[in-house]
Amino acid sequence: MTAAAPIEPSTARHLHHLLATEQRTSRLPSVAAGIVRDGSLAWSDAVGTLDGRAEGLAADADTQYRMGSITKTFVAVAVLQLRDRGQLDLLDRFDEHVPGTAFGDVTIAQLLSHGAGLQAETDGPWWERTAGVSWDDLAAAPVRQRFRAGRRFHYTNVGFAALGELVARAHGADWFEVVRRDLLEPLGMTRTTTRPTGKAAQGLAVHPFADVLLPEPEHDAGAMAPAGQLWSTVEDLGRWATFAGGDTGDVLAADTLEEMLEPHTLSDNPGQPWTAAHGLGWQVWNLGGRRYAGHGGSMPGFLAGLRVDVETGDGVVVLANTTAGMRPVGSDLLAAFVEREPRMPQVWHASGDPSVLDVVGMWHWGPSVTVARAVGEHLVLGEPGQARGSRFAPVGADEWVGLDGYYTGEPLRLVRRADGTASHLDLASFRFTRTPYDPDADVPGGVHEAGWR
């Protein structure tokens, strides 16, 4: 990653204090973290040692940790690359690409969004702590459905083993070789691997009632590897965070990433408003009116987290070598960074197009009043996020398409009179007129001949 502009020393001290406090309070052998902004690692730090002992080697931003389920995001992007190349459709049944399973009727989209209803774990011994089996052995178990496909969210590690097999068969190569060639190498992520290499942390469990440690096993997960095998560093995972924030380079189209980060399956908790969902391989969160995307990860001996503000691209990554106990320190780090290092507003300059003057201003949908504004390249009707307010992107002369809420994907057209002056707006068949129910604007159903009275 490229170097970012330096942050204030006081900010760096505060972030270090938060990280060091978490390391001691939660008794983490080591923890490493980074903040990304504008495509770069703005801050990184690490506290603790690789083996949890005072005399051990200190952790840093180049220390490898196992990222666990963040691995799923790489597999998901590889699947969407196949879709974008026309090699599959997200509504394809799984058995169209990988025949011979007991769940061939589920769609690829349902697997990506944990909506397929598949069992969460394998039928064999605790797969995260035992050597993996082949795909044929896993599929023969057999894999069962706990719920009807499409009914509800049910997290499934097995489902991503299936997607890894799909990627492998589509390319005729191991799933990780595809990820390495098509994702990691183009993004410069040279320290992301399936097994630890170079400087790497020992996976450890910390006793709940004493300050002693137990090494956790590390192995090849076989067919389950696409669910949580990868190892990475703060520097490499920071590059993946900038990817999630929109800096996809030549790896993925921007609108495909946007599609992946849309909530597809809600993580519903009865009695509570939803704050979390799954997109296509990514977790998304709706917190305090802001949308975040990323993924968490855990494997015996390791915890990891990646979270990015979808609007600004600011993000955080955290890696620790402990089985349990770490609080959501990443959210605290990101919030502190944003508060202490606010983005400077861009200087305003007159850069509008006078041709939009025909469409901006007050319009009426029946008796309701709506104001149209030109904001940058978009036409905005009402207030996005409120009622049916939406932004509209231009797609042709006097034509736009909706980007938000009710009108997402819907067409908007400015209809002109024979003399070229603006008559009315046609929005998904609704008529917007300059005055309420303007009889000269061809209002569907007509306007009562007596007019207003």
Automatic annotation (TrEMBL):
Superkingdom to which the source organism belongs: Bacteria
Protein name from the UniProt record: CubicO group peptidase (Beta-lactamase class C family)
Residue ranges occupied by any Beta-lactamase-related domain in the UniProt entry: 23-332
Domain annotation DUF7586: ranges: 353-434
Cross-referenced Pfam families: Beta-lactamase, DUF7586
